[in-house]
Queue: 4 jobs
Job 1
Amino acid sequence: MKRSVRGCYQSEGYVFAKNAGEIGKQHGLERVARLASNENPDPPSDKALELGFAALSNANRYPDERQVSLNDALMAAHGNYHFVTGVGMDGVIETTIRTLVEPGELIVVSTPTFSFYRLSAIAQGAGVAEVPRGSGFSVEPAPFIEACEEAKLAFLCTPNNPTGNGTPPEVIREILEHIDCVLFLDNAYVEFSELDYLPLLRDYDNLIIGRTFSKAYSLAGLRVGYAFVPEWFRPYYVRAATPHTLNAVSAAAAVGALSDVKHVKTARERVIKWRKELSGRLEYPVLPSDANFVMVDVSPLTSDEAVEGLARMGVLVRSCRSFRGLKDHYVRVSIGADWENTMCIDAFSRLNP
């Protein structure tokens, strides 16, 4: 009966980083530096844990489908914007596509980038136009705008995964001035940068800005995503969303996390410090980054060769081989705890070309 599976799932799917426990067992290591998944090495804040545990006692009830408490907390933290929520950024992306895109319509993606845009579009029956980035993996407005002429929706990640570089707000403004489709700006890593795209929301009603609690807020395991959206879009998104997807525990923990500004500040300061350290001390070229990771050129090694060599020394990083449009000699290295970053520097120094 395998023939019953849709063609888009016969040959590809999302590529996950290797599992730290499996790497440790394979190489006889007591501990592994987990630098492959762009996680925050700090546990959730005390306030997030407190509200999450409290919500667990009412787990016999369905969560609030309107997510009023989380919406109010987002407004208190960011201002009087319109929000939608989902199960991680992935859930917001998937529901946005479901809301806007009919089978056969076109989605534009700036590559190399997060693969889930393309996978979600194909799952919806949409076509995908990939626009290669320019020098230094920068976004070139002209070809991106041209590709959007026939599109319903476009995705642009900034800071970009896996390259790490951010796109200046003035470039995003130029794009918005010349397109008619909706632009989804993925800001999963924006807390680690100086970039601010929120002012653009006041001027353009075709802009959606997605964010996540997985990175700066340490809630990767609870899967909470949200987006700033135009007022017209929100009721349609709610109709398209799967009922009760964001569970009550995750939503309550997110409310608590938003109230702990110090937690995010600590994570941001550590990332900025260690981005500079890795850029100066790794014995391979490190690309400029605005995110909580850096991309490293490991040539003449291939991505997988470098990942395997580092894993033998207890450092788990992400191979970039699966990122479409990226040559096979890059790895992505997350900023971890101090001991993990130090271990990473040492392992790279012993990585033989």
Job 2
Amino acid sequence: MEIVDLTSFVSGEILLETEFVENIKDSDWDRYQDKNVLVRGCGEAPLPIWAFMMISAKLAPVAKTIRYGNEHSNIVIYRRSS
């Protein structure tokens, strides 16, 4: 399973929307083609729901499945139909 850590799109401890959006735009989402992806990122500071939604919107066209949570406890929020 591939892992996308939302905190990697944030510099420092504060999420700045414009910076977050630019980092998402500059990422190579094709590397998740046909893979099971875990979106992780609630570390020290909670992230807003829209951040998870933006990542999911980028992953949905390429990923096989998208999960939220951690490696031991997660839920499937998207599964591509065959």
Job 3
Amino acid sequence: MANNEEKKVKNSTAIDSRCPSCGAKITFNPKKKKWICDYCNSEFTVQELKNKSENENLEEDDKGLFQYNCPDCGAVIVADEQTSATFCVYCGNTAILKNKLTGKFRPNYIIPFKKDKEEAKEAFRNLSKGRKFVPKTFNNETNIEKIRGIYIPFWLYDIVFNEELDAKGEEIIHWTTGKTHYTKTDIYEMHRKGTMTFEKVPVDGSSRFENDLMNSIEPFDYNELEEYNHAYLSGFLAEKYDIDEEKCYDDAKTRITNSGEKEMLETCKHGIPRIIKKEIDDVISKFYYVLLPVYMVNVKYKDKYYTFAMNGQTGKFVGNIPLDKNKVFIYSIISLIICFGIIELIIYLIYCLGGK
């Protein structure tokens, strides 16, 4: 793996997570893109906080961060000292153990939340609107209130991809002359060679967040990456990665290989080409450790957890709600009774009219 030129975070100015005016808690507001003081209602931009921090010569460290360990599912959630984690966002367990964060928790970059919690809650409510057979638990306000904004750890890779492949395609033509049927098969052997550059290929660094689910809420706009400051965590949670960049690269390589081969095969115009031989050479020019914003909630129904997630930058929401089989059964019985009653009424009216 190539050396990571961006692995070490630049010496950026730290942002204090307390109000410059009164010293109370400040929370990042996604809508205003400012930090808001809950006590004196002051508002601060990132530049205003950086200017204050530069004047006070603050050094960013991890002293203000804590980790919450779930003894049930093993999740490790990170938050600042003002943000409490009262339950596990993955399994709902309330027995969360709070410990001082050990070691460095310092990503390269972060995409701050743009959507607020109310938008996430409304998206969850809309998911069940118009659906007759949604289990009651999915409309329970207690579960809706458990939606939390959490920064998910990701690795981004810049990759130069070289591939040389041999493909074979067939074109088959059928025709009939008189009573004779003919088939002509043309076989084409094709050779392709190309170099492609992929920037910021994302791979989830958490084993607890399903890759398919995360892929479903992509894409993120990486033009909005900001240098990491733990003040962005104020009011939100974050997770530590448990899959390193070496292991995650396998997934990144699979993604770029599929994309690269698709592009190359689209230039093969004869039949449906299939690869018979290939050689791949991939080089990582850079990789980054980043935090991406996601709202999520897990709802337990009949001993199974259903995960719902919303892209905290774009608002794209995904999740599947199961059917309540009891509701389906009751609705079917009622429908049969109504249909039977209508049929009986029609028979009765026909009998009465016939009698006259």
Job 4
Amino acid sequence: MPIVQFFRLVPVIIWLVAFTPSGGSASSVDLRLEVVDEPYMSISTGLRCSQCHVNRTGGGARNDFGSRFAQTRLPLTNFTYVNRNVTSFLSWGANFRMRGSGTVSDSNAPTDIDILEESLQLEARVIPDVLALYVDQIVGPSGLRTREAFALLETLPLNGYVKAGRFMLPYGLRLADDQAFIRERTRFNHQTPDEGVEVGIEPGKLSLFTSFTNGPQLAEGSDSGKQITTTAALIYRRFRVGASASRNNAPLGKRDVAGAFGGFNVGRFTFLGELDYIFDKPNDGLEVRQLAGYVEGDFLATRGFNLKATYGYLDPRRQIGENERVRARFGLEMFPIQFLQFSIFYTLLQDIPQATTDLDRLSLDFHVFF
């Protein structure tokens, strides 16, 4: 093997030897803020999630087009294009994120510095544009965990595909911020992948995805009460609208989630939002009805600089009055060069009066992605 090809294979060798998928509880690792790509980028360009990502519903590693887009369209300054391909059929990617945060009061620890994520992705295009194997492996900071691992069969009728394995479920806007109420309370986020099968079609302006999975509340190996999740969206150059629904019949009870989402772009401005209704009916308890909403506005000040403001609303128990919560964030995202993102945000949380802890925080994120 020529020495150049050997060194190109080093990342894959390290990944296979050191980061073999392992078990463990889902709560043992923080899976938040997995990727730089966010829904506002898709809405501002009119592109589907599948245009840039290996996972057809978004998130995770970028494909060749997505990698080129991230290197040439996002940063203020870009250098020579770097190819993610290790060989003609293997490609890899990585994410590393750190955060420094602090409060303006003494009710919480005033400052904190954490590593939020270390992850590696590997894609093997067994048959180009037809069959691929994909793994997204969390390697830190709290141990090993497989976020996604699936086989993907594409080039089916109606621009369709079938995906089988472990993956994030197709519901709503795939925000990078798992702490947003619409992602935290619906439980469709980077911390809750599931095992099963997903099918989808994307003819013309339509995107339609449906998954059949175990359900996060089911015991491992259970063969009944599966979860079904579906999302449909109409995608145009300047706007899109969609709806999602999910039902999980678990041994401990039933959970239904339904919502609508959409967004539009006007020049340098992009707006998006989602509204979700959550209904939990445990077998041995009271019904819980929740309402979660999210609105976001983005302004592309100049290439490499995006101003963002978000507003989240949560009514955690519709049966109880005056218990609503509000979470607002505003700040700046910067992409100075390829593969590098800085972001600074201030988060305001308006909680119920009984919650005396000050949760408002100023945070600075450092993110290297490839």
